Amino acid sequence: MQQEIIVYTDGAALGNPGKGGYGVVMKFGNHRKEISEAYTHTTNNRMELLAVITALECIKPNSHVIKIHTDSKYVCDAINLRWIDGWVKKGWKNVKNIDLWKRFLLAYKLHQVKFVWVKGHAGIVENERCDEIATAAAAKGPWKTDIGYLAAIKKNDQSLF
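Above: the chain's sequence. Below: its structure in token form.
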């Protein structure tokens, strides 16, 4: 049986939109990796999704089954309930965060991924750690620019809200 890579992800925004951050904890055997980044003007959902994307982009394609634990119903349901299939079929009409969903699909297709929804702030150690590092990143920076979010605002595109 192939060993799974276990991933926990979380996103945070201080204001929505506002300064945001994401946190990732990845575990494989005795190995553990934490990743976090901060953005100046973004949303919580964008940070939740960017955490998942970042994790997938860090893993070699088709190396192992990946089990992603997230407290984001937005992300988990988009995959497990196959919302994303409908979004693609309809040409992304009226979909929020299109830039990130397209980036997600590129990474997702390279792996065998299972999504597991976990309740946030429920004492799940690795989920709590992701929340901690996502919130700390949002509060302390250094902040990057969420170009996709700002581009949508500039175009007065309401699809992100």
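The two ends are 43 Å apart (CA to CA).
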